[in-house]
Amino acid sequence: MEFLIALCFLAAIVLASAFLIAFFFSEEVRATKDKDPAARSYLEIILLYPGLHALVAYRIAHELWLRRLKFLARFVSQSARALTGIEIHPGAVIGKGFFIDHGMGVVIGETAVIGDQVTLFQGVTLGGTGKETGKRHPTIGDNVVVGTGAKILGNIEIGSNSYVGANAVVLESMPENSTVVGVPARVTKQDGKRIDIMMDHARVLDPVKQQIEELQRRLNELEQKAKP
């Protein structure tokens, strides 16, 4: 009987928490449903998505940080890190419709600024360089997608409507409406148009690969001309 009462009490807490998340984080829940084809229901997102849980903890920690309760804010953020594998510093500024897919290994630094409708995949780092003070983490524009394992480092800007390819290492600011790939990252434009927020990483243009293919083509032409 006591076990049944405890189980009912736990279920009530879970349902109440789910209701609060659905009410206060409705935009993030909708963004997850829109961007993740694996999401089957809103209840599944609310209860089982670590990216959403990390964001909820961040919003709480950020409010504590703004109220100068910095130790408590860090305690909340580190607790969320232990539970989700996602580390978001409470001092970071994050806009609406933020979505972290899977999320394990994501790190967002203290002075990072993230715009609206941004998507991060697992292993992304928005980090600093060296021991400088002040603004030392990236600023990410609106509608940006950052692929798996990408590292964006330092006080730089990624323009709105851009795509950072998987495992790219970005050390310089990048313009709007661009694809950023490689180590160190380079930019490829797609006709100056907004890049669709797609999850098909295989369709991203690689400027290094394009240059190698062009060199190979010219080498083949020279070899053909050199034949007797």
How would you describe the overall organization of this protein?
The protein has 228 residues and is α/β, with parallel strands linked by helices. The chain has a domain at 99-228: Hexapeptide repeat proteins (UDP N-Acetylglucosamine Acyltransferase, domain 1, 3 Solenoid), CATH 2.160.10. The protein is built from six helices and 15 strands. The protein has helices spanning 2-24, 26-35, 42-48, 50-66, 70-84, 207-226, and strands spanning 87-88, 93-94, 99-100, 107-108, 113-114, 119-120, 125-127, 139-140, 145-146, 151-153, 157-158, 163-164, 169-170, 178-181, 186-189. Strands 3-6-9-12-14-15 form a six-stranded mixed sheet. Strands 1-4-7-10-13 form a five-stranded parallel sheet. The chain is elongated. The N and C termini lie far apart (95 Å). Residues 195-199 have low confidence and may be disordered.
| Sequence of secondary-structure elements | HHHHHEEEEEEEEEEEEEEEH
* Rg (CA only): 21 Å
Summing up helix and strand content along with how strands pair, one would put the structural category as: alpha/beta
CATH class of one domain: Mainly Beta
Mean pLDDT: 80
Q: Strands across the major sheet, in which order?
A: 3-6-9-12-14-15
How many beta-strand segments? 15
Low-pLDDT residue spans: 195-199
Terminal CA distance reads 95 Å
The share of residues in extended strands comes to 15-25%
Compute the number of helices.
Answer: 6
CATH superfamily of one domain: Hexapeptide repeat proteins
Bulk shape: elongated
Helix content: 40-55%
CATH topology of one domain: UDP N-Acetylglucosamine Acyltransferase, domain 1
Q: How would a crystallographer describe the biggest sheet?
A: 6 strands, mixed
CATH architecture of one domain: 3 Solenoid
